[in-house]
Amino acid sequence: VSWPASGATGGEKRPSFVVKRLKTMFSLDERTDSTGAFRLTAVKPAFELAASYLNDPGNRDAASAAAWFLQDPVLADRLHAVEETARLGRGRLSVKQSSSLYGQELTMSASRIDKFYACRFLYFLQYGLNARPRKPAGFDAPTAGTFMHYVLENVARDIRDGAGFHNIGDDGIKALTHDYVSRYVSESLDGFKDKSSRFKYLFNRLASDAIFIVLDMVRELRCSDFVPLDFELEFSESGDLPAYTPSGKDVSVKIKGFVDRVDGWERDGKLYLRVVDYKTGKKTFSLSDILYGMNMQMLIYLFALCRSGAGLYGKTIVPAGVLYTPAREELVQAPRSTCQADIEAARSKKVRRSGMVLYDGDVIEAMEHGAAKNFIPVRLTKDGPSGDSLATLEQLERLSAHIDRMLLEIAGNVRKGSIQAEPYYKNQNDNACLFCDYSEACRFSEDDGDRRRFLRKLKTDDAWRQLDGEKVQ
Ligand code: SF4
């Protein structure tokens, strides 16, 4: 008597009630077969195993499966076809093929732009072929991100429309957070119906992290004059604002997507806006990345707001900055004897946002009151504001022009059908292949002409100089 432990998509499978009865009636033992030999008992999985022989000639099960299929003329042809396909080069798409895969009018999201920049072959597999990797069931990163965004958005909106960030106490914030966690469980997770114990355990751990994350967000807004104006603001034809559409001589691209949060502050009749992105991962802002055409999302949205936000907000818009805000509990490593105050101090260092802030004393003070800037990535010295994250209006304008250039370059390459496996490579711990879901399908090989794109991290000063067209050694 057997049953699969998981389905084709990785979801957990449970045995039928008959198994339980049989186990009780005959005192049967339960054994897990993890050798993979069971794949030889049905044609489809056995064929997949046989095809894997090409990659793994030392695998005896795969060799037996291949030998069996080669005896049958029809199935042998299929296996030979797989072999031939594996020998093909990557080639490139024609403009016509590219148009039929990606559409006559090129529309991309900021995350697609990042994918294309990370590796063109990865982009082709994911968005051209719509190939989907097998995912194990569980509370994975996208699910955790959706949950955290839901809680942050709803709690922030309720406080803004109710007591206000300066008036609500920590107990009120915790109660609101609990309330939205419970709503999420009943509305989006169907009250944990059909969820495994492991899922519930992971979710509950995340729910307790949510309290710290929400408190951190409100503590920042308590000492700021910037107020959340919009959550999940959509740029698209049917959204709150039109898609951002840079266009060049031969190519144009529509960038659509959502901004997690837009905060605003008014001065002299002008509205200063900052774009806030919640990050469940460890991402930090880097001008060097922007220069290479990576992680441009927040700045794309900021510049899109500058171009079309006046209609929405009824004021002239001035860019005030972009901030990555942590949406995960930051763990502090310290000896057991460390007191609570020191732990809080260490934690507050970890919650400092990363991003870019307009070089303007009033804007900086409005973003965070007081001399000690705990949240925004700026320091106040006797000579004024300091830090790599500062940018003047004129520098922001240059960045905007640079981003448009990069977007059009990327769009041009998508249009031309470029699908090379040329993943970016900064170092062993930061490269496109490291967590790529498609590595098995791609079979990257420098011997077959694939190559890595080595990126050197530039210091911020050098990045600004390079943006000005200067050569940096
Ligand atoms: S494994 Fe590397 S080269 Fe292959 S698709 Fe992924 S990122 Fe590209």
List the helices and strands and how they pair.
Blueprint (H helix, E strand, L loop, with lengths): L16 H10 L16 H9 L8 H11 L2 H15 L7 H8 L4 E3 H9 L1 H9 L12 H21 L8 H19 L8 H26 L4 E9 L18 E14 L2 E10 L7 H6 L4 H17 L2 E11 L13 H11 L3 E5 L2 H7 L11 E3 L2 E3 L3 E2 L1 H23 L8 E4 L2 E2 L7 H4 L10 E2 L5 H8 L6
Parallel strand pairs: 1-3, 4-5, 6-9, 10-12
Antiparallel strand pairs: 2-3, 3-4, 5-6, 7-8, 10-11
The site of iron/sulfur cluster has 12 residues, from helix 7 and helix 16.
Notes on the protein architecture:
With 473 residues, this protein is α/β, with parallel strands linked by helices. The protein has helices at residues 17-26, 43-51, 60-70, 73-87, 95-102, 110-118, 120-128, 141-161, 170-188, 197-222, 287-292, 297-313, 340-350, 361-367, 393-415, 439-442, 460-467, and strands at residues 107-109, 227-235, 254-267, 270-279, 316-326, 354-358, 379-381, 384-386, 390-391, 424-427, 430-431, 453-454. The strands form three sheets. Strands 1, 2, 3, 4, 5, 6 and 9 form a seven-stranded mixed β-sheet that branches. β10 and β11 (430-431) form a beta hairpin. α2 (43-51) crosses α3 (60-70), α8 packs parallel to α10 (197-222) and α9 packs antiparallel against α10 (197-222). The termini are far apart.
Question: Any descriptors?
Answer:
473 residues, alpha/beta, 7-stranded mixed sheet, 3-stranded mixed sheet, 17 helices, 45% helix, 14% strand, globular, binds iron/sulfur cluster
Compact summary:
The model has no long low-confidence stretch (mean pLDDT 87). The chain is α/β, with parallel strands linked by helices and 473 residues long.
